[in-house]
Specification:
The complex is a heterodimer of chains A (291) and B (608). Chain A is an all-alpha fold. Chain A contains eleven helices and two strands. Chain A has a single domain, classed as Orthogonal Bundle (ABC transporter involved in vitamin B12 uptake, BtuC), CATH 1.10.3470. A two-stranded antiparallel ribbon of chain A has the order 1-2. Chain B is elongated. Chain B has three domains: 216 residues, no CATH class; 182 residues, P-loop containing nucleotide triphosphate hydrolases (Rossmann fold); 80 residues, no CATH class. Chain B contains 27 helices and twelve strands. With 608 residues, chain B is α/β, with parallel strands linked by helices. Classes of the chains: A mainly alpha (291), B alpha/beta (608).
Chain lengths: 291, 608
């Protein structure tokens, strides 16, 4: 039974990371119907930067977080302007390849800058395991869950209580009409892309104390996190949080009780099955096509 | 001119191909060229999928892995039997098994995944490739884990084991075959269908194409090519491991066709050759492999949207449309009979009773009944938002009604989808014109002729007599229909170059190609000028005379009054009036729906 709770807790922490990355996909999709296919590599970049800022230069967690946010936000602005917008404007789907290409670029650059080794990053709140009876939790895992919940609450507040958030939702609903209302839809698109980059960067920052940082870490995280919004429905942040955590927990239980090699195979099979029966996701609303 | 230069290019290519192993001494370059051939086979398969059918896949390395591993495992298992080894049959059987297995895996993946569009599909295929890769790593007892499989046999013939030169001819010959199959496929009925659905799936379904089934078929063909490539790769290398089939390899294949020119015949060959040879010539390129790929992708996307082949005049002329043969001359298809006589046996043709449709909380249609009869024009009018298009969407199978019954030719039916309705003889046009991009007017109509097809994908791949014969008949019918709507002179024009009014007419010709019994026209006069509306009215008269049942949604009352036999008026999703033009015109409820009540008017005018 303790074993069950132990892997459940670990799974929830992992799931929170998935949810944080997943909402990054959702943010750009809702505003401009674009997904950053290289988002996992942005997570990796956030992790590698955390190593440099927090470990190598010892700048403290606050400066590290600000640095990660600033750099990934900036990269998000640049990437949206040069690798997404030109294609979206032209009505081409080439952005799929372009966003992937940017991700590949990050991997090789990271290998050149940081090398191919795994770099250890200590937990931000120390390494002393907190005991809850027989179950042990790293403070970092609690931090991950807390930070993710905070991020989602913040996002909720942003979407529903701020003017910019309303503008985001307006553009998501109908960019043409939003533009007529005087909303700068282009700026919203850029901002949403940068926001997705920042969220991914934070996810990388939070996860490296548990996984270690290395240039290859991004692809798998990005891919697994993609399952979440697909299953939950891309336009449903609350659904994404729920499904992300549930996915992490289920994944933990599968590898704990079955065998870890089969874990991802089951997860992807599940995704395909759900998509088949509910293309709009579990929490999405079906949309009606017009002819 | 272009045909001539194509032949010369083909001849020169063939001579170079045959002579290369003789000229090239040393096996290094031959080995490289074999790799080019193998990659080109996979790229050709991917090009059919992405370039022509417009469906993404980033999981082709996984399909290739299935071909490679299965071929290796089967041929090694069969290596126990000396007879098989001595004839080389163990390898041939292995390759065949690997190729077929990849096709089957492709079907298993495509069937659920192709319900998804664009980006989702891309991500699911990425996941597929990744799952295969993980399986290769973890299923150690069968795949050898990260060490992979070694000592994979080459085929042999008696005592002779295939050397590099023999393998060169084998892989090269198969690549030429793959290229020929690609060409046949693109210039076939099936190729036309997949190009059509690439541009507009809804319109493709409206002429009876089972979009999902065709997409799965393309994916299976594409996967089979990938499996063959994988099998050839395994027996060339003699050893394989999971690293050969990573995500980055899937990207490589995508890049070959983007770079070479997606949707061109020669694009995949050019892409596979350049992207295999260039990194090989650059020393120490391995370290920067991803950067090279990434930069190439971005450069291609920005500056070569049609790839290298897009810059070649030869390739341009080969793009898309089939070669025009000599004009068929006067055709013996009698339109008035040919269009619809086959289906004029029953009356009424299409009856709906008590149809309802809700979208969330909004009631779009409520208890609507309508009988549509042969040789009559039924107009459907009503204010904006009255539910006219929703009704047409139900009649054409695009929406399923929440309740009510639909009877087609005296049989109660559930219209399951657009293509199902089209196959039952219910054809339609669209309020916002839906055409197939730069495909020619004739091709549009030929796509619509899908219904009479007996030949299948295999006939299309082989261009056999049955396929050629059907193509000729389709072409004749298409030309006759274009003549009928007055577009004969524009038969070879890309639809994108047609004037607006001509596009409307082309949609009608396409809808007629399936020999429907019911034709649903959703605002056919929208955006037309007066003269064009008269032409349209004449056309509708002729179709009615030919025995077609026509449903006409229209806001142009002149047209409605001129051609309609009966009018049904919808308001807020309900039928408020029906009858002849005169009766409806006098119906106070209709006046009210359009102009408000007398009470309202008094109020307005008193204020005004």
């Amino acid at each position: 039974m303790f074993f069950f709770f132990q892997i459940l807790l670990n799974g929830i922490a992992t799931g929170a990371i998935y949810a944080l990355i997943a909402v990054g996909y959702s943010v750009t999709f809702t505003t401009m119907r674009v997904l950053n296919f290289g988002l996992g590599m942005w997570v990796m970049l956030g992790g590698m930067l955390t190593y440099s800022l927090y470990v190598a230069w010892d700048l403290g967690i606050v400066v590290t977080a600000l640095g990660v946010a600033a750099l990934l936000g900036l990269l998000g602005v640049v990437a949206e302007r040069f690798t997404v917008r030109p294609f979206v404007k032209a009505g081409s789907e080439a952005w799929v390849m372009a966003t992937l290409a940017v991700g590949l670029l990050y991997v090789d650059i990271a290998e050149l800058v940081w090398g191919r080794n795994s770099l250890a990053v200590p937990g931000f709140l120390g390494e002393n395991v907190i005991r809850l009876g027989a179950v042990g939790v790293y403070p970092q895992q609690l931090l991950i869950v807390a930070a993710t919940v905070a991020a989602f609450l913040g996002l909720d507040y942003f979407y529903y209580r701020t003017l910019w958030g309303s503008a985001f939702r307006a553009v998501a609903h109908n960019p043409e009409v939003a533009r007529l209302m005087g909303i700068n839809a282009g700026a919203i698109a850029t901002a949403s892309y940068a926001l997705a980059g920042i969220l991914a960067g934070f996810a990388g920052m939070l996860v490296v104390p548990i996984t270690t940082a290395d240039p290859q870490m991004g692809a798998v995280l990005g891919l697994k996190a993609f399952v979440v919004p697909i299953v939950a429905g891309l336009a449903s942040p609350r659904g994404i949080l729920f499904c992300g955590v549930a996915y992490g927990a289920i994944e933990g239980l599968i590898s704990g009780y079955l065998f870890s090699g089969i874990r991802d195979i089951l997860a992807f099979a599940l995704m395909i099955v759900i998509l088949y029966f509910r293309p709009e996701g579990l929490f999405g609303r079906p949309s009606f096509e017009r002819a | 001119m272009s045909r001539f230069s194509n032949r010369i290019a083909l001849g020169v290519g063939l001579v170079v191909f045959l002579a290369a192993p003789v000229i090239l001494t040393g096996s290094y370059f031959k080995f490289l060229l074999i790799l080019v051939f193998i990659y080109a086979i996979v790229s050709i398969g991917l090009n059919i999928l992405i370039g022509y059918a417009g469906q993404f896949s980033l999981g082709h390395a996984g399909l290739m892995a299935i071909g490679a591993y299965l071929s290796a495992i089967v041929s090694m298992a069969l290596g126990e039997y000396p007879v098989l080894v001595w004839t080389g049959a163990n390898v041939w059987i292995g390759m065949l098994a690997g190729t077929i297995a990849a096709g089957l895996a492709g079907a298993a993946l495509a069937f659920p995944a192709l319900r998804l569009k664009g980006p989702y599909l891309a991500m699911v295929t990425i996941a597929f490739g990744w799952v295969i890769w993980k399986t290769l790593l973890n299923w150690t007892s069968v795949t050898g884990g990260d060490l992979g499989i070694t000592a994979i046999p080459r085929p042999r013939f008696g005592a002779e084991i295939f050397g590099v030169t023999a393998y060169y001819y084998l892989a090269g010959g198969l690549m030429i075959a793959a290229f020929a199959l690609q060409r046949n496929l693109v210039f076939s009925d099936f190729g036309r269908k997949i190009r059509a659905l690439k541009h507009d799936e809804v319109a493709a379904a409206s002429v009876g194409i089972d979009v999902h089934r065709e997409k799965v078929a393309v994916f299976v063909i594409s996967a089979t090519f990938a499996g063959l490539g994988g099998a050839l790769f395994a027996h060339l290398q003699n050893f394989i491991n999971p690293d050969d089939f990573q995500f980055v390899n899937s990207i490589f294949f995508l890049l070959t066709i983007l770079f070479g020119g997606a949707g061109t015949l020669v694009g995949p060959l050019i892409g596979a050759a350049l992207l295999t040879l260039i990194p090989e010539l650059l020393q120490d390129a391995e370290r920067f492999r991803l950067i090279i790929f990434a930069v190439l992708i971005l450069i291609t996307l920005f500056f070569l949207p049609r790839g290298v082949a897009g810059m070649l005049p030869v390739a341009q002329s080969r793009r898309g449309s089939p070669r025009s043969e000599a004009s068929p001359g006067p055709v013996a298809v009698e339109i008035s009979g040919g269009v619809s006589s086959a289906r004029t046996d029953e009356s009424p043709t299409l009856t709906v009773t008590g149809i309802g449709k809700r979208f969330g909380g909004v009631t779009a249609l409520k208890d609507v009944s309508m009988a549509i009869e042969t040789g009559r024009v039924h107009a459907l009018i009503g204010p904006n938002g009255a539910g006219k298009t929703t009704l047409v969407n139900i009649l054409s199978g695009f929406y399923r009604p929440d309740g009510g019954s639909i009877v087609v030719a005296n049989r109660e039916t559930r219209l399951l989808s657009l293509h199902h309705a089209a196959r039952l003889g219910i054809s339609r046009t669209f309020q916002t014109i839906k055409l197939f991009g730069e495909m020619t007017a004739r091709e549009h109509v030929m796509v619509g002729c899908e219904l009479q097809s007996e030949a299948g994908v295999i006939d299309a791949l082989l261009h056999d007599a049955r396929h050629r014969d059907e193509e000729r008949r389709r072409r004749e019918l298409a030309d006759a229909l274009l003549e009928f709507v007055g577009l004969a002179a524009r038969a070879d024009a890309p639809a994108t170059s047609l004037a607006y009014g001509h596009r409307r007419l082309l949609e009608i010709a396409r809808a007629l190609a399936g020999r429907p019994r019911v034709l649903l026209l959703d605002e056919p006069a929208a955006g037309l000028v007066a003269g064009e509306i008269e032409t349209l009215a004449l056309l509708i008269e002729k179709l009615r005379a030919g025995g077609l049942a026509i449903v006409l949604i229209e806001h142009h009352m002149d047209l409605v009054v001129a051609v309609s036999d009966a009018i049904t008026v919808l308001d807020y999703g309900e039928v408020i009036s029906r009858g002849t033009v005169e009766a409806v015109r006098r119906d106070p409820r209709v006046v009210e729906a359009y102009l408000g009540t007398a009470e309202d008017q008094r109020y307005l005018f008193a204020r005004g």
